[in-house]
Amino acid sequence: MKNHLFCRFKLPASLLLVSALSFLTGCGRLYVKDIATDALDPSNLADTEPSIAVNGRDTSEIAIVTFSENWSATAGAPVWKSSDRGRTWRKVFQVVQPIPGSFGPADQKVDFDEDGRLDVAELALSGGVSDFVFRQTTTPEAALTPGAAYGNDQPHLSVDRHLSSPNVGHLYSPFLDFTQAPERSSVAASSDRGVTMHSVGAGNNSVFANRTTRVAVAPDGKVYIVYKIREGTTGAPSGFENVHFTVNRSNDAGVTWAGTGAAGVSVHGAAQVQTYMTNSFGNPGKGKVARARSSDAWIACNPRNGDVYVSYVRRDASGFAQIYVARSTDQGVTWNSHRVTDGTHNAAYPEVAITKRGVAAVLYIDYDDSGAATLFRHHLARSFDHGTSWSDETLQSMDPGPLANASSGFLWGDYEGLTAAKDTFYGVFTGESTGRTVAQLDPIFFRQRSCRWYWISCWLESQ
Amino acid sequence: MQNVLTDRQLWGEDALAILANLQNWSDAGETSIQIFPDRVVSSSKYDSLPAAQQISARLSSFLKRPPKLRAEYQGAYQASFARAAAFRISGQKLLEDDAFHVVLQREGGDFLKPGIPIRSILDRFGQPEKQTSEVIQADGDRRPVVLTVYWYADGAVKFAQSDLSPAPNTVDRVIVDVTRVAAQLH
Fold this sequence. Notes:
The structure holds two protein chains of two kinds.
Chain A: H1 15-25, E1 31-34, E2 48-54, E3 62-67, E4 77-82, E5 90-95, E6 108-112, E7 118-125, E8 129-135, E9 145-146, E10 158-159, E11 171-177, E12 184-190, E13 198-201, E14 210-217, E15 223-230, E16 240-250, E17 265-266, E18 273-276, E19 278-281, E20 290-292, E21 297-301, E22 308-315, E23 321-328, E24 336-339, E25 347-354, E26 360-368, E27 375-383, E28 391-398, E29 417-421, E30 424-432, E31 441-449, H2 456-460
Antiparallel strand pairs in A: 1-31, 2-3, 3-4, 4-5, 6-7, 7-8, 8-9, 10-11, 11-12, 12-13, 14-15, 15-16, 16-17, 16-18, 19-20, 21-22, 22-23, 23-24, 25-26, 26-27, 27-28, 29-30, 30-31
Chain B: H1 2-5, H2 13-20, H3 22-27, E1 32-35, E2 40-42, H4 49-62, H5 71-77, E3 88-93, E4 100-105, H6 118-125, E5 130-136, E6 145-152, E7 157-162, E8 173-177, H7 178-185
Antiparallel strand pairs in B: 1-2, 1-8, 2-4, 3-4, 5-6, 6-7, 7-8
């Protein structure tokens, strides 16, 4: 694991001096930190399925949610918070029990709105499944307020915080609706921060079930979802299924979802691709394995020009499950895909994010089972040419076998966290701890400013 | 095992009645049950509600039989015998795995004592022979239940804590091997 001081230029200097300092001080290098400590995590919880958000009003403010402490009748579940760009962290127990007697959090996603207020989508179990958007209504550290119940399985969340958008302040929470047969990707939208939610079916489930629904908002207020249409296992190896990763667009703040046609558009063309549908990502004969069922797609928009990026899993001619990124420059109508990974290992769990200057990054996981134990490796791949070519860095290589709180079948969850603010990527993954009395799974934070070396204004800009 | 099976700090009166009638679960075809504070659930999963109901009906009829216990358990369990008459047994779909199970309940049920710290289990019964984890997946992709399971009596009795419990480090359920514990009791 790497730890580097992050540099930050507040005052302009001569270009030569800045360039030299940038090079010498490692500006743009990766900063990685285990945010848990023995004091913050006395029960040695697994902290799985993390997500991350950065306050656009003040990027020193970062929030993370993981499966840490649960809520109860008397105490809230925590949001991990940093006010110094990730150097130090605290837990704020502010996600209160939304229904008396309910269990949770049991799926969650975090975001900030345009005014820097926190919103969190949560799934609660109480005889059935209900989702809630919790919103900050008073001070940042106070208990969050749950809104109306909505939704079903695996709620996500994106807030429209683009001042250029006609729908700024609206929020969108996609989920998979198991009350429909076959299950359907759906989206709940709200214009009042979750006080009221309006859910509509968005995926094409006319023949096959949907899964893995993710959402992104473009600066013009158009909203995109990606989801997969599950089309059976004929010809697919064990643990894989045939799918179409499909994008649709809403032009009306989530009221309808037919911007790319009623059936949506496949980002990889007409042919099916094969992706994971397994509880055994890894090598069961060589250690613990992970669930990879809704762990194969993500979507993000360029915050300036609205280009849409989708990361997805495709088992290709290499014989391995690989990470691909597709880009659309025409509002999701046509797509071009490029492979991120190198065709040598199985990979999944891709999250994609885009900086304001159009740099793309993908956080993903692959595994190496060539030795006695399976090593799972978290990667951050970046592209400075709109997703055409990628450079890759390993964030951490981990054998979960010795980690007592790493449960085979659910090692880090279905997804992890990656976002961008200004020119910096911020992420979190569930990885092996550092500096803990008991070695365990912890939430590992990272960030990396991402500028071309000759983008002087990018290096000069306060992050 | 006798210490575990007769521990009044662990079991409510209804749990004692369950243990006294454990042979009936075995006769109904169940090999393992899970005792919660408010209910008892078959570990067996069924594909349909009718399949679970069929086992429920069989178990209901068996519960009318008087329990036959070894002498060393008669004293501890005798007072609980009458409670079995108030048990309601049904097939139910459980949220944690989206599967159908046989579920036994009683109005105001007093099965496993709630909120027992795992620490007190270790203090009373010693270190477990084994500690494992079990992930219970549902059909969807919501957070699964992750059980940390403490094995005693070669797995005949297992204490499990749940990562979804609002009270961490407490006993969520006790998993009883019906065949082996029934052989001990009857």
